[in-house]
Write a structure and sequence with these properties.
Belongs to the HAD-like hydrolase superfamily. PHOSPHO family. The protein is an alpha/beta fold and 241 residues long. 38% of the residues lie in helices and 16% in strands.
Length: 241
């Protein structure tokens, strides 16, 4: 018996959007209007690339960014939940699929000593250039029309499961924990024994209920959460069964 836990990152593990949190490093903690208005739907990663150039141009260094990012708060109950998963790693494989970036997630998880809880992190690759600017790239290319250009979480999940099967690992149940619109595509890929756990009051929960109203509900079970303690109670229940 083994369970796969799939986590989104922003507004799920941390209680904010890591990409907008970095703006605290900008002069006067805000971006110029021209830059802010340059975002085009589906092209968030390119937009963040421009934000990082702006920060670099204004002399914001890696150390300051790291200090700022490690002050981002975890979602209520998340520290307890990750501690619990860490104590039961033999039963849980745990991955992150996120539209943030490798640098931010790495900093935040390592500062809180949670990096060992996760087996893999799938997110946009980022690195500091020789001139000290943070750069970010799209995670992959895909053909899904529902997802942003840089990341289809369903594709990531499917490829991960295929790779695990080749290694002889299959899961009793997949538990998908997220909040955003881009979490709907992987949730629609889940089977009836799996469970989607959308954050209460956020886009994913609203989209799942909309589907149910349109009489095309998702195949998996759905259980909303408002604190990560709700998720932990569910996992404890699973282990009892």
């Amino acid at each position: 018996m083994k369970f796969l836990l799939v986590f989104d990152f922003d507004h799920t593990i941390v209680d904010e959007n890591s990409d907008t949190w970095i703006v605290k490093c900008a002069p006067e903690k805000k971006l110029p209007n021209g830059l802010r208005n340059s975002y085009r739907p589906g092209h968030w990663t390119e937009y963040m690339g421009r934000v990082f150039v702006y920060l670099g141009d204004n002399g914001v260094k890696e150390d300051e960014m790291r200090r700022t990012m490690t002050t981002i708060p975890f979602t209520a109950g998340m520290v307890d939940l990750l501690g619990f998963i860490g104590e039961n790693k033999e039963l849980f494989d745990c991955i992150i699929v996120s539209d943030s970036n490798t640098v931010f997630i790495d900093w935040i998880l390592k500062a809180a000593e949670f990096h060992k809880v996760f087996d893999e992190v799938f997110t946009n690759p980022a690195a500091f250039s020789s001139t000290g600017y943070l750069t970010v790239q799209n995670f992959h290319a895909h053909h899904c029309e529902k997802c942003p250009k840089n990341l289809c979480k369903r594709k990531v999940l499917k490829e991960f499961l295929d790779k695990q099967l080749e290694r002889g690992v299959s899961y009793t149940q997949i538990v998908y924990i997220g909040d955003g619109g881009n979490d709907l595509c992987p949730v629609m890929f889940l089977k009836k024994d799996d469970i989607a756990m959308p954050r209460q009051g956020y886009t994913l929960e609203k989209k799942i209920s909309q589907l149910a109203q349109d009489l095309s509900p998702v195949e998996c079970s759905v259980l909303a959460w408002s604190s990560a303690i709700d998720i932990m109670s569910y996992l404890k229940q699973l282990l009892k069964e």
